[in-house]
Amino acid sequence: MTTYDKKTLENLWEGNLSSGELRPIQSQFKDQDRFWKFLEYCQERVGWSDRILLPLQPHLFVVQKPDGRRVNKCDCGFEFGDYRQNWKLEAQVFVRDTDETLQEIYPPMMHCDPEWMVLREFYCPGCYSLLEVETVPPCYPIIHDFKPDLETFYREWLGKEFK
Predict the structure, then answer these.
(1) Residue 1 has pLDDT above 70, yes or no
(2) Model-level pTM?
């Protein structure tokens, strides 16, 4: 089994690897300490000390506060509230629901029909980083993508007791 150092994992996360470098990392068995190395890398790159429990996506993490609360937090420091709640409800949302707004990112005739589908862009209110995009029918409820079971993940997948 190949093991990867933190610098390689950083390049993986930042999208700085060629397809030739990326393919083996994706297809091989994961080294046992990869998650811990990646958590260490994430913790080093943020400007706050709350303990990262789980990276959700670029810029967004589940963290543990000193008082024990667990919240979704952007790397800029903005907190979206309890990690079990849908963080998107606290985000700034821009909905592309007209031909004009869709053509800002798609060429004419290459975008969806806004009567059938819209793009929702979710931005951090603290730093305005784009956190996620949903493609949904108009008026569709905001999707709650992921409600992690941290205790089970740590105990059964990582083999560590969750504290």
Answers:
(1) no
(2) 0.87
